[in-house]
Amino acid sequence: MRAKAILASVGSFLAVAALSLAADSMMGTWKLDEAKSKYAAGATKNHTVAYTMAGDMIKCTVDGTDKDGKAVHSEWTGKFDGKDYAVTGDPTSDMRSVKMVNPHTFDLTVKKGGKVTASGKIVVSPDGKTRTVTTSAMDSMGMKMENTAVYDKQ
User: Fold this and answer.
1) Number of Cβ within a 10 Å radius of residue 87
2) How far apart are CA 8 and CA 13, in angstroms?
3) Strand pairing partners for 39?
4) Which superfamily is assigned to 2-153 in CATH?
């Protein structure tokens, strides 16, 4: 019985360590590489995205420009557990969820008023130097927009 308890404890520790390592691949500041990115007309560009720890949560701070070149800033604090967490500063969303698929791949869902407005995938390269975000969303006219943003770790 004692051996089972020890194995269970070790298994729990390894699971927590794996989640921590997965979060590590996203942590830090990422700068947009516009030459490698492809945006639909009128899409907001997130020029810098920073992931930092906030207690047992992850804080994501985004700075960029909207379709008119006006500065935008938003923040999200949550976990990579697929649950919705509040977004502040983004007029197009109020909730965001990020779910870890594996240590370098994350699914992203963006919502406004309970309705999914965008979804996508975040992939961090094996060497941890590049982060690629592919999203699909609807613009204000109801037209589908596909974006691929490539970021370099700073």
Assistant:
1) 21
2) 9
3) none
4) Calycin beta-barrel core domain (2.40.128.20)
Burial of 127 (0-12, 13-18, 19+ CB in 10 A): exposed
- State pLDDT tens for residues 58-89: 999 999 999 899 999 999 999 999 999 999 99
CB 100 within 8 A of CB 22: yes
Domain positions in the chain = 2-153
Determine phi and psi for 9, rounding to 5 degrees.
-65, -45
Q: What span, in angstroms and rounded, lies between the C-alpha atoms of 144 and 150?
A: 20
End-to-end CA distance of the chain: 49
pLDDT tens digits, 122-152: 999 999 999 999 999 987 777 899 999 999 9
Counting Cα atoms < 13 Å in the Cβ hemisphere of 41 gives 2
Residues 108, 97 contacting (CB under 8 angstroms): yes
Q: Count the Cβ atoms, other than its own, within 10 Å of residue 44.
A: 19
Distance CA 82, CA 59 (A): 15
